[in-house]
Amino acid sequence: MTTSISKIGAREIIDSRGNPTLEVEVTLDGGIIDRASVPSGASTGSHEALELRDHDKSRYDGKGVLQAVGNVENEISDRLVGCDAREQKQIDEALIELDGTSDKSRLGANAILGVSLSVAKAAAMSQQVSLFRHIGGSQANLLPVPMANILNGGVHTDWQSTDIQEFMVMPLGAASYSEGIRWIVEIYHKLKLVLAEKGFLTTVGDEGG
């Protein structure tokens, strides 16, 4: 079967913050290869799945992900090689069962998500369809309303102005996705002018706000 998983590999790469993160590469029997990386945010909520870091202070101040790389290339690979990449629900269920924890801390959420996303991308490519079409099916014709972060607070900014971490906008009522994006962009730039006029800092925070 050309959509069977033949190989799963992983490597440590550097994300946009200059920190190590995981990149997973999936190869299918038909020769399709796709990749997914899993950068993380500056903070982790108490109910979020946990990424796996090495905690080896001699490398990247303990933020390395070689353990997660090993989990992908050994335990996860052993379980998923031979599976049909098109069966995303079965792939994800197998990953969750293999990990066996409620917060995905044994194998690492970074390892699990990286594998899940790279499998989905490879399956979509093998069928010559967009990722949204592969996941949503033939009836996936409605894009969600975008949510955009326009102000950062908390640990996402160097100046502790507020404990609220993200101020977001949603362009409800826009006639199209592109119009909604335009509304967001115009709000973002207008807000910057208003803040500057009032003497506030307009530097860009950790997530663009």
From TrEMBL:
<dbReference type="InterPro" id="IPR036849">
    <property type="entry name" value="Enolase-like_C_sf"/>
</dbReference>
<dbReference type="InterPro" id="IPR020810">
    <property type="entry name" value="Enolase_C"/>
</dbReference>
<dbReference type="InterPro" id="IPR029017">
    <property type="entry name" value="Enolase-like_N"/>
</dbReference>
<dbReference type="GO" id="GO:0004634">
    <property type="term" value="F:phosphopyruvate hydratase activity"/>
</dbReference>
<comment type="pathway">
    <text>Carbohydrate degradation; glycolysis; pyruvate from D-glyceraldehyde 3-phosphate: step 4/5.</text>
</comment>
<feature type="domain" description="Enolase C-terminal TIM barrel">
    <location>
        <begin position="140"/>
        <end position="209"/>
    </location>
</feature>
<feature type="region of interest" description="Disordered">
    <location>
        <begin position="37"/>
        <end position="56"/>
    </location>
</feature>
<dbReference type="Pfam" id="PF00113">
    <property type="entry name" value="Enolase_C"/>
</dbReference>
<dbReference type="InterPro" id="IPR000941">
    <property type="entry name" value="Enolase"/>
</dbReference>
<protein>
    <recommendedName>
        <fullName>phosphopyruvate hydratase</fullName>
        <ecNumber>4.2.1.11</ecNumber>
    </recommendedName>
</protein>
<dbReference type="GO" id="GO:0000015">
    <property type="term" value="C:phosphopyruvate hydratase complex"/>
</dbReference>
<keyword id="KW-0456">Lyase</keyword>
<dbReference type="Pfam" id="PF03952">
    <property type="entry name" value="Enolase_N"/>
</dbReference>
<keyword id="KW-0460">Magnesium</keyword>
<dbReference type="GO" id="GO:0000287">
    <property type="term" value="F:magnesium ion binding"/>
</dbReference>
<comment type="similarity">
    <text>Belongs to the enolase family.</text>
</comment>
<dbReference type="GO" id="GO:0006096">
    <property type="term" value="P:glycolytic process"/>
</dbReference>
<feature type="domain" description="Enolase N-terminal">
    <location>
        <begin position="5"/>
        <end position="135"/>
    </location>
</feature>
<keyword id="KW-0324">Glycolysis</keyword>
<dbReference type="InterPro" id="IPR020811">
    <property type="entry name" value="Enolase_N"/>
</dbReference>
